[in-house]
User: Which sequence fits this backbone?
């Protein structure tokens, strides 16, 4: 099962889902030498308008894959800043000035649309090494034969592949075909999201946070929390606004629903007035319903696996959703690279997917659990969890807290080698 040369072969791989996780997977496997077809359920593959963070444990893979990161128009983050809910006074700062020096890569903040376009290029563009991936839209997966790699779609098409990867998000159909029934409950927290351009901020003489190049927080000692991030090279300001679900008029509505300005402002009467002024001039106001998922029992069966939100949906409070999906994609690229023989036959592909689950599930589940803890305690958040002398510092368990060292020192190559070696000895 180890490093056997001469048995590797190019696989014909299906990636179900054309979002960020799916495109990262297509990019990783393209770079590993495989042929990838991406199947997207909608009539286009795209993302909605919100910020998304990519810390060093994600950025390093983008760099390794040769992704054109400037195409994603990121803001390179310099700080994490926490504010008092009502006054806006700074209560905690985690400095990222030496971040690249310590971890080898920067902390990027993207707009989702820009990150998606960037990864679309790395997956399908002709300027990158490997075979460009093919995108097929209007292909909603309905059934998978996991032993034969046969995928059936709602439009009547049927395709057979050597390996099938479900990157189809939190409502994953691929996950359903694996027989996984999510153990989930709606969170006691609800979220609204809005944006305002920096041009409007300056024109209206409002609070301009872009010079800080920071993720900034108001509150966080309980359910109520505002999370601000700049994106699109500082041209756009993104706000995630958390409050009790019981106060929401639309707790069942998702990202495609629009809400009024009055609904946005209603839960936040006592908030820093400077933020309320920004909200009153914001746009693209949408709700985000949140669910807490327990770790799933399996991630793979036969020739099929899942990744990203399909495998480990998590609360957003560690800002690790994109990074964990990228790590999943990286693991698959390593396992099915020519360093190992997992791409040599259907039997070896099955073994490779078992290795993938053993490598990724413990780490992703740990981030998932830490994200749930950070929902109502900002000092559990990576970065702030290292500021142990701050007067507001308090974590549930010192031994279980997630740290920046744990996230960024992780060696995926060594992790795969350890699991492969253990499987060979078993």
Assistant:
């Amino acid at each position: 099962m180890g490093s056997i040369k001469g048995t590797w072969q190019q696989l014909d791989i299906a990636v179900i889902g054309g979002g960020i996780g799916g495109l990262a997977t297509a990019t990783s496997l393209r770079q590993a030498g495989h042929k990838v077809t991406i199947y997207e359920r909608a009539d286009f593959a795209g993302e909605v308008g919100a910020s998304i963070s990519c810390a060093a444990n994600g950025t390093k893979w983008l760099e390794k894959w040769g992704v054109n990161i400037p195409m994603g128009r990121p803001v390179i983050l310099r700080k994490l800043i926490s504010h008092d809910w009502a006054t806006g006074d700074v209560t905690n700062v985690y400095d990222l000035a030496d971040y690249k020096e310590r971890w080898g890569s920067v902390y990027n903040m993207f707009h989702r649309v820009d990150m998606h376009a960037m990864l679309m290029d790395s997956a399908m563009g002709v300027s990158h090494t490997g075979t460009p991936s093919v995108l097929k839209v209007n292909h909603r997966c309905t059934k998978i034969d996991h032993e034969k790699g046969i995928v059936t779609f709602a439009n009547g098409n049927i395709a057979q592949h050597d390996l099938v990867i479900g990157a189809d998000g939190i409502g994953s159909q691929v996950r359903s075909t694996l027989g996984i029934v999510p153990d989930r409950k709606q969170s006691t927290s609800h979220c609204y999201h809005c944006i305002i351009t920096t041009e409007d901020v300056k024109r209206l003489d409002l609070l301009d946070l872009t010079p800080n190049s920071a993720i900034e927080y108001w509150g966080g000692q309980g359910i109520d929390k505002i999370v601000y991030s700049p994106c699109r090279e500082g041209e756009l300001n993104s706000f995630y606004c958390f409050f009790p679900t019981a106060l929401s008029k639309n707790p069942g509505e998702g990202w495609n629903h629009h809400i009024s300005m009055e609904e946005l402002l209603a839960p936040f009467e006592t908030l820093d007035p400077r933020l309320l002024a920004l909200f009153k001039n914001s746009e693209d106001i949408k709700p985000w319903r949140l669910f807490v998922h327990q770790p799933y029992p399996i991630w793979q069966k036969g020739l099929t696996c899942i990744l990203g939100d399909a495998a480990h949906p998590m609360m957003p409070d560690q800002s690790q959703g994109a990074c964990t999906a990228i790590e999943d994609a990286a693991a698959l690229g390593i396992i099915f690279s020519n360093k190992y023989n997992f791409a040599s036959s259907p039997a070896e592909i099955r073994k490779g997917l078992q290795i993938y689950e053993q490598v990724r599930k413990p780490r992703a589940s740990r981030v998932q659990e830490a994200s749930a803890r950070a929902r109502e305690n900002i000092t559990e958040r990576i970065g702030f969890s290292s500021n142990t002398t701050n007067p507001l510092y308090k974590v549930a368990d010192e031994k279980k807290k997630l740290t920046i060292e744990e996230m960024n020192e992780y060696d995926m190559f060594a992790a795969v080698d350890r699991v492969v070696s253990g499987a060979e000895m078993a």
